[in-house]
Structure formats: structure tokens, C-alpha cells
Hints:
With 393 residues, the chain is an alpha/beta fold. 38% of the residues lie in helices and 15% in strands.
Amino acid sequence: MVAKDRQLFPATCSLCEACCGCLWEISDGDIVAVHSDPKDPLSEGFVCPKGRAIPALERDPDRLRAPQVKRGDKLVPATWDAAYARAEQLLKPILDRHGPDAVAVYVGNGAAHNYALSGYLRVLVEQLGSKNFFTSGTVDQVPRQVVSGLLYGSTSSVPVPDFDRTDLLWIIGANPLESNGSMVLAPGPRKRLSSLRKRGGRLVVFDPRKTLTAKMADEHFAIRPTGDPLFLAAVANVLFQEGYSSNTHAISRAAGLDEIHRLLAAFTPEFVEKAIAVPAVDIRRLALEIRDTPKAAIYGRMGTTATRFGTLTCWLVDLVNLLAGNLDCVGGSMFSKPLAAQENTLGVAGKGAGFSTARWRSRVSGYPEVMGELPVICLPEEIETSGTGQIRA
Length: 393
């Protein structure tokens, strides 16, 4: 019950891309509690612990409530005018002497879900003119977007599993019961996965840890870390050998399958089983199950992207979905299409501008640019290595 001196306001939690609907309980202009909104058509009465913690975030004594300027060895509160003046005093000599690449920009996850911040940020980066742009994305989802760019011509064309209509769901390196189904935009994963099982479907989880999601699964395979590409390559190998799906919707648009078959010939279930700790007999069974189940999908997340072979793993996820007849199909992995303002909603279908990488490279190790940014792994060496182009701010 809400006290008489408090009001409920419908709102959207912006702490992740699921954007769950919630109700803010307000008293004297402060958020005192966050409740789920049963009327929200997407989240249907679900809000995760992050959303419920918004009042604590608002009241956090360490939260900055004014600009801070360093005086001696201490940061002290300052006015915005003083902060801007200090920024100009420090930045302008560096830009004048060393050029725009002497200043780097790093953007964290919070900016991605803040429309005002992301809009102004683009202007700032353009005005700086620096090639040294870094985000948390390169240790998160960028491998998935690179694969979409190379396969489909748009980094926005990311196939997502149809949780609500599939009959067989593989979850690889993801724990949606705790992470809320990142990059799926399906709030309330426990309810959705429970519905899958109630309608007779099956949930199979591949994860080195026995996560909450793994505990809910019909089958859990504790695949060894970095073993995902070997597993998926062996599954694809089986599908090539045994015959892939007769669903020609996506297969008819695919090119290079004979070459891929040749490249994967050595990756038999027997060849990979010891390396990944998944028995060959199970690999073969799973491959045929995902092919023979009319509606099946694969969902891979951080375990498939934040690894040494992340891009390869994401490509193999799409390959297996394709060979099993589940790519761009109801109940399988489907391409979402935003309302507007993204590259996969503009122009004539099939006439995209294409996708490329390595338009420039990092100064020290020569890492390639991807989607306008450099991998954040090279940021420390770009700061610490002296010479022309060294990051100084």
C-alpha cells in the first residue's frame, strides 16, 4: 500500500536496454520506492533488483551532486562556470600542442541508456576530432555486432531468440535469470523460460558455472571456458554430415557453405569432446535435436562475446541457427526492426552501405578500429607509451 502523502508515477527504468516499466513512489519530490508495473505490455509486472535499487542510488552519499575541481591534491565542489574554465585551462594547451589524438574519450555503459548524454556525447567527440574513442562495448557486445555487420551489412541487424514461441532454447554463456536477458529485450526471463517448459519445450544451458539459469534447465553442460567455438563447430560439422534443415528460407540466401563445410571437416564431436568436456554422443544428439525441432533458437551472451574467440563464436551461433533452419523464423532467432533512425531501417532493402573495419589503427599495438572505436584493452598502453600521439588527457 502507498501512504496518502505519496504518489505513484509510471516510469521506465533505463539501467539496461530491457527498459522495464515501473512505478515510482514519490514523496516530497524524492523517489522512496520503485515498484513493478503490471500494466506495462513488455515487462508485464517485472522489475529486476537494479531497478528497485534506484532510490538507494539517488540517496547514495558518494553520488556527485556538483562539479568537482582539483585544488592541490583534493577534489572540491565547484560551480559549472569554474569547472568549464578549468577544463578549458587544462585541455586547450594539450590540443594546441599535441593535436586532437592526444585526448581520448572513454564511455561507460550508463551513457548507452541515457538519451541526453549519448546525444551530447556525439557532439563532444566530433568537436574533439580524436580517433582515440573507447567504450565498454569492446569488452561486451561488439563481437556480436561485427558479425552482424559482416554477414548482414548492418551492425544493428542482430538476430534475437524468440523466447515466447520457441520449443527448444540453447543458452550459451548467459545467465538471464540474473542479468535479465541482455540484448534480447525480454524482461522477466524466469516467467518466459517457465512458459517454455510449460508448453512442453526444453531449455539447455552451456556454462562452466551452475548458474541460476543452469539450475532451471532441462540439461546443463559445464562446457570448459573458451570451448564454445569448438562445440558449435562440431555441431555444424554434424549438420553438414547428416544433412542440414530443409527450411530454405535463409539457406537459399547463404553463400560459401561448401567452403565452410571443408573448413569444419576436422572438427568432429570426437575431436573436440576432451577439449570442451562435452561427450561426443551428446554433441551429435544435440545437433540433431536442434535441427529436428520445428522451433528452436540459440541465445549467446557475455560468455560468447567477452572471450578470445568472441567474433568467431558469434558467427558460429548464426551458422548453426542457419543450418538448423532457425534463422529469421518464428520461434527461432529473428531479426528485430526498430521503428526508425537506425541503419537497418533506412534506404532500399538490400542496398546497404556495407561494413568495414580497420579504417585506422591504435598507435602502439596496431589494433584495428571497429565501429568508430578502438578496443579498450589498448587504452593503458596508449597512455603510458611516450611519443607522438600519446594520450595525455
